[in-house]
């Protein structure tokens, strides 16, 4: 769709979605075929978890280190970096070079995820009208779950035909094609005639909340980063091991195990779009984060129950809770940034919040892998995930109470 009446077309939204989705493709693909990777390479569950740890560790460092760099680089150059790094990561994974090479590929995939949030948030701030901005944030942030959905379906299907190395090669070709299309679309979308100096509060119903009380910006960024850190631990502990849990504990096939992760991704796509729309209608971030934390905690309890009863039905219910709640947090965090931070600093702020998330992504799989490989197995692992989400509930409750205190001060 082309731009109409001064509005950017959906082709721009599509490339934002692609830029966010391409970096995680390798990690989600390997998770979907985890049983094959573990048996093929002769590695332990903890070593498999280290792949995700290396990926998100590199992403954490990249997001923290390159925030200001992102603010200084043109959008097109950053998109080239994103798609090039993703392509290299997938190509390295396509080479049968053993576990060390796969660790390197995972690290490169993590670096590929250091830039998309910053550049896509800035594109939204400088090329998309205010009334569309928060809603589009929800859609483009669903790119991570689109990646999870595509990888969780595509990698097992391709692996049955050409092996998991071959599946990675197909992903590399897709990354190149998406990168070329993205650059062409971006070049056709001009900057707004007068880019706003801030993407901060606007009237309710027009992309932000008029009832949102003034908040110290530095505290806001640190609070969002902290919540992302804690939630991220639970998110990737679940994402990386849900397929293995389904195969080993519930006797699912490798394809059906990948389907469990795919369903979580599909629900996550819908959830991020839905939560983004709620934010665009004026919903404040703190109460929404509390709701999502409570839902995620319930989901961890259902995973525990599924393992204890060996119930496939409970597994699907747990996957639904996971997709609808924990996977939806990112859009709330990014919408809060887009709503509150000046466009000239949006790369740095996005980098800090995303670094918090990636820090959690780094810790979660390593912790879960160690627990799953211990005598406690998945039961201990899901208990730890429940404890993580309980911390999210506590932090979100504090943020809600703090917001209410500020609102009372303003009304005095």
UniProtKB/TrEMBL annotation:
The chain crosses the membrane at residues 12-34, 46-66, 78-95, 170-192, 219-242, 254-275, 287-308, 314-338, 345-368, 380-401. Keywords: Membrane, Transmembrane, Transmembrane helix. The keyword Translocase does not apply. This is Arabinose efflux permease. Residues 11-404 form the Major facilitator superfamily (MFS) profile domain. One of its GO terms (molecular function) is transmembrane transporter activity. The lineage of its organism: Bacteria, Bacillati, Actinomycetota, Actinomycetes, Micrococcales. GO terms for cellular component: plasma membrane. It is found in: Cell membrane. It is a multi-pass membrane protein. InterPro entries: MFS, MFS-Transporter, MFS_dom, MFS_trans_sf. Pfam families: MFS_1. Its main location: membrane.
């Amino acid at each position: 769709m082309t731009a109409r009446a001064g509005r950017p077309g959906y082709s721009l939204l599509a490339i934002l979605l692609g830029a966010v989705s391409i970096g995680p493709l390798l990690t989600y693909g390997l998770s979907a075929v985890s049983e094959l990777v573990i048996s093929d390479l002769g590695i332990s569950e903890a070593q498999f978890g280290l792949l995700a740890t290396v990926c998100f560790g590199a992403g954490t460092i990249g997001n923290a280190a390159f925030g200001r760099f992102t603010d200084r680089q043109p959008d097109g150059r950053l998109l080239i970096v994103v798609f090039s790094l993703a392509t290299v990561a997938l190509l390295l994974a396509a080479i049968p070079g053993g576990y060390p090479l796969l660790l390197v590929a995972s690290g490169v995939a993590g670096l590929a995820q250091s830039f998309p949030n910053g550049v896509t948030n800035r594109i939204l701030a400088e090329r998309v009208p205010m009334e569309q901005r928060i809603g589009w944030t929800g859609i483009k942030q669903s790119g991570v779950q689109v990646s999870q959905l595509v990888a969780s379906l595509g990698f097992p299907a391709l692996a049955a035909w050409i092996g998991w190395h071959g599946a990675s090669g197909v992903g590399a070709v897709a990354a190149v094609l998406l990168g070329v299309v993205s650059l062409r679309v971006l070049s056709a979308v001009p900057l707004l005639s007068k880019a706003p100096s801030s993407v901060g509060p606007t009237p309710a119903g027009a992309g932000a909340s008029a009832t949102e009380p003034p908040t110290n910006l530095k505290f806001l960024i640190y609070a969002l980063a902290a919540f992302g850190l804690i939630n991220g631990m639970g998110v990737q502990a679940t994402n990386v091991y849900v397929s293995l849990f389904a195969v080993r504990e519930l006797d699912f096939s490798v394809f059906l195990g990948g389907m469990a992760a795919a369903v979580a991704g599909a629900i996550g796509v819908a959830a991020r779009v839905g939560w983004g729309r709620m934010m665009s209608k004026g919903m404040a971030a703190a109460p929404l984060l509390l709701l999502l934390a409570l839902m995620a905690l319930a989901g961890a309890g259902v995973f525990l129950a599924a393992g204890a009863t060996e119930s496939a039905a409970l597994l699907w219910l747990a996957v639904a809770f996971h997709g609808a709640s924990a996977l939806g947090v990112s859009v709330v965090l990014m919408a809060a940034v887009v709503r509150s931070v000046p466009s000239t600093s949006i790369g740095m702020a996005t980098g800090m919040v995303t670094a918090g998330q990636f820090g959690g992504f780094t810790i979660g799989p390593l912790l879960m892998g160690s627990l799953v490989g211990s005598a406690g197995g998945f039961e201990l692992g899901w208990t730890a995930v429940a404890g993580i989400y309980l911390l999210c509930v506590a932090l979100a409750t504090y943020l809600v109470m703090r917001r209410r205190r500020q609102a009372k001060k303003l009304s005095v």
